[in-house]
# Entry
Amino acid sequence: MKELVESIAKALVDHPDDVHVTETNHEQTLTIKLSVNPADMGKVIGKQGRIAKAIRSVVYAAAANQKKRINVEIV
# Structure
């Protein structure tokens, strides 16, 4: 999942070297934190959060076969 979020984010931003993704694995949840350059924050979130929602939808669909809940946070 980490690689998926990282590849999507790097395709969206102007500063792909500043994209950092961390995973925190708990018992029933997997938290993915995405941090980007402050200048690229708007590109990752999108108008009214549409791009962020699309990223979350892709990650949820990719994780459908896992028995864990996935949280994607944009920091």
